[in-house]
Amino acid sequence: MMFWSVITKTSEKKDYTVTNTKWHPDVLKNKERNIYLMPSKSVFKYIFASGLLFIFYSCSKDEYYTDYKTKEKQILETNDNNKDDSDSSITLFQSKYIIAHMGVHGNGVPENSRESLIKALELNIYGTEFDVRQTKDKMLVICHNASFHGLSIANSSYEELSQYTLKNGESFPLLEDFLKIKKEKKTYVRLIIELKGCVVSDLVQLVDKYDLQDEVDYISFSSRYCNELVSLGYGDKTYFLGGNYSPAKVKDLKYGGIDYRYIVYNSNENWIDEAKALNLKTMVWVVNDVEKIKEYIQKEVIVTTDYPQKGYEIEEAICKTNNQ
Does the CA dihedral 314-264-260-141 come out positive or negative? Predict the structure, then answer.
């Protein structure tokens, strides 16, 4: 579009004086003529039309912007709703045979820590195992060993023990911390609680407080603890670790099943089949060899392992092969 008029000065025409050179400061010259550029009438029309458009836009832009943001918000809310619906349709493989031994630990994550529990709960495995002990002042804590930083747990108060932290900086964990995390996460991963030096009724009462009995299993080397659990009505969730009771005896004691070290099954080859025949849940600990994990899963034995992610992948692969 041409916005400038051309006025020439030649010998055949009158001289024209351009008094408004500020519109276009450039003056083009050649040997024949002087050429000056200045605004044409069409430019003024354009400026007038632009002014009208600017006034219209100024009056309507706020209304348009508000309407646009409202629509944008509605679209985002719709997308969020659709996203939730689509996410809920995605089904991750749910393991039936893998237990994380003291949670998912390693790479700076300590065993039996809150962080190891959270990682296990996110893994879609059968369960995550941890150890419960009781302090001198009756606090239920999470610890594998009988001492923490050289202090006897049974002979120390929680305040004394809590002056020390785990390697990742976490405070000394309480059972109640773990139950709160489980309640908040709302996953299918079960809590496998090993009883070590605690009052059984105190432990059961705390689990009841968080309404988690349907999501908890109890394991112990102590037949006394197991018997107490049976007397409290939790026999079907109780599994004996000792390895010295036959499946038939475990059934008579009204325990829910057996959870023996793999070498016990090596010495008693028929016990897995006998336990299944008696409708006892059968578990094995602690298995870290890939081929052994695969072997036990194929026998439908629940495996406690230090490598739950690997166990999960093995079980998923077996499941896919069997469904082909």
Answer: negative
Q: What is the pLDDT at residue 48?
A: 55
Phi, psi dihedral angles at 170 (to 5 degrees): -70, 150
The span from the CA of 218 to the CA of 194, in Å, is 6
Nearest Cα to 203, choosing from 152, 132, 302? 132
* pLDDT for the residue numbered 145: 97
Token pair recorded at residue 280: 């006892």
Rg (CA), the chain: 39
Owner of token pair 């009438």:
41
Cα separation, 135 vs 41, in Å, equals 96
Q: Report helix, strand or coil for 289.
A: coil
Say which residues have a Cβ less than 8 Å from residue 84's Cβ, sequence separation at least 6.
none
Residue appearing with tokens 């050429």: 35
State pLDDT tens for residues 193-246.
Answer: 999 999 999 999 999 999 999 999 999 999 999 999 999 999 999 999 999 999
Average pLDDT in the 92-97 region?
A: 93
Sign of the CA dihedral 209, 210, 215, 221?
negative
The amino acid at 191: L
Query: What are the C-alpha distances in Å from 168 to residues 94, 105, 115, 295?
Result: 29, 11, 9, 35
Rounded to whole angstroms, how far apart are CA atoms 110 and 144?
A: 11
Give CA separation, 9 vs 6, 19, 21, 27, 34, in Å.
10, 14, 15, 12, 5
Paired residues of 190 in beta bridges? 127
Phi and psi angles of residue 281, each rounded to the nearest 5 degrees, phi first: -70, 135
What span, in angstroms and rounded, lies between the C-alpha atoms of 165 and 171? 5
| 17 band by pLDDT with thresholds 50, 70 and 90 | very low
What amino acid occupies position 278? L
Length of the chain: 324
Instruction: Look at residue 30 and tell me whether its pLDDT is greater than 70.
Output: no
